[in-house]
Amino acid sequence: MSRVLTQAPTPRVPPPVAPPPLGPVGMARWAWRQLTSMRVALLLLFLLALAAIPGSVVPQRDSDPLAVGELAASNPELARWYERLGLFDVYSAPWFAAIYLALFVSLVGCIVPRSRQHWRAVRARPPAAPRALERLPAHRRSTLDAPPSEVLAAAHAVLRRRRYRVVRDGADGPDGAGGAASLAAEKGHLRESGNLVFHLALVGVLAAVAVGSLFGYRAQVLVVQGGGFANTVIQYDSLRTGALFDPADLPPFTLRLQRFTMDFADSGAQVGTPLDYDAYVRWQPSPDAPTQQQHIRVNEPLSTAGTLVHLLNPGYAPRLTVRDADGDVLFSGAVPFLPQDANFTSTGVLKVPVAAQPGRADAGADIGTETGADIGIEGLFLPTAVLDAAGPRSVFPEPRDPALFLTAWTGDLGLDDGIPQSVYRLDTSRMTQLRADGDLFRAALGVGESAQLPGGHGSVTFDGYTRWANFQVSRNAGKEVALVSVLCAIAGLTASLFVRRRRCWVRVAAAPGGRSVVEVAGLDRDAGGDLGTEVEQIETQVRAALQGSRPRPEGAP
């Protein structure tokens, strides 16, 4: 008998079914869920912190324009790349604003649904006691000499004192007849509340910063001792305003710098370190208000009508007098020089326009008889001058031996071209440096000394020096909201870190002889808590409450 072998049929595998395309609406919902997830919010917060690092490393144009100019002069190629990437204005850069707005939207999208869930959880009834309490992480069982009703009342009072929200589950039978009743308690919702408050406070900080950037302004002005300024737009050396800033909102105060002092450490390891900057000013809140006096120090600004006047970096302003060949004064006054190092080695320029004098030729310059040859002076001011093999330098920031080293140029300063120029730079493209005996003209002057300019261009006198201070005038429209938000963030973070989410159950069953069997169990919703100690203390306090409420027999200890 032959057996016919047949091959079993191969099961047919259905072809994979491709999921339907999301479409524009589905893609938008998916993107919104990703953006409003807590993971993305934390990622954006981390990116914002990283994006803020260049603002503390690279000098910013709104807070330290002098350092920005120095960087551009010393390394122009690097400065060009910084300018393209917006690193000189980090907090106004488009990429920083994009991260900022994305974080704002993400936080709002996270907080709203979580707030609804938290509100439902707070109002929800604590869950009933599990059937097997002994399986919970912390559990204690004891027998007390009291009926179940008294034990339940004592346990309820103890849990309330320990800030639990308590509900009674009910009883399986009458007290003393084998029935059991239980209490369900819960606390620690303040942990999630603190978490939500912290995130809401972050939104408040972001909103305050946005309001400040839209309605606020920040300006800087250099004031020589004895001079002053009015709070108007044209008075400032630099001004940065928000998109909704209105110059009409500027408070009409005026300020005059009467005296400015600088103290430096002159001994020890910190020699030359600034100890104190003190600006003694007179100011008027409005034109018809009485004059007031005030000291402005570092981190002690003047405040008026929501505007703060901070004291920034100081410097020296040599007093120079420039005369022409006939002895007529072409310029006389203080010229602010910019510090270049910690010892206040300072550089500056003086531009002296010379009016045309028909019929007179200016020697040493290729200029016609009907044009004046302007004079440009570049100077180096040293408060405590030393001349050694390294050249002239200052060895201490206080003016103990001041000296002025200068050179001069003549030609066209370009002041009539209508193009704005920096008062701290001299454009020598249309000028010729003066020479004396074939060498470039240079002079070193002490206080009261003069130098004759070659070619009959007159003379320069170093009359002395005075001090100047740089003031920052700013208004942060949302600073009050930011302060309240930061305080709320600290409170919310403290609550979210130190409050424990915890549940506790107390089950009481009747035992013979009017006694009660008590079970206390607990469950931590967060890791790291000392749950065993909590359950033990609840059981001990319930026992102590029952002993303190029952009358003692006569003669009992």
Low-confidence spans: 172-178, 360-371, 551-557
What is the distance, rounded to the nearest whole angstrom, between the alpha carbons of the first and last residues? 103 Å
Whole-number count of domains: 4
Count, helices:
9
Instruction: Please tell me the overall pLDDT.
Output: 85
Strand proportion: 25-35%
What does this protein structure show overall?
- The chain has helices at residues 23-35, 38-57, 65-74, 76-85, 94-123, 148-161, 189-215, 479-498, 531-549, and strands at residues 138-144, 165-171, 180-187, 217-224, 228-230, 238-241, 254-264, 274-284, 292-297, 302-304, 307-323, 329-334, 338-339, 346-352, 374-382, 385-388, 391-394, 403-411, 431-433, 435-436, 439-440, 443-445, 450-452, 459-475, 502-511, 515-524.
- It is an alpha+beta fold and 557 residues long.
- It folds into four domains: 30-122, no CATH class; 128-188 and 500-549, Kinase associated domain 1, KA1 (TATA-Binding Protein, 2-Layer Sandwich); 194-216 and 478-492, no CATH class; 217-359 and 366-475, no CATH class.
- Strands 4, 6, 10, 11, 12, 23 and 24 form a seven-stranded antiparallel beta sheet that branches.
- Strand 25 (502-511) and strand 26 form a beta hairpin.
- Helix 2 runs antiparallel to helix 5.
- The longest helix is centred in the N-terminal third of the chain and has 30 residues, at 94-123.
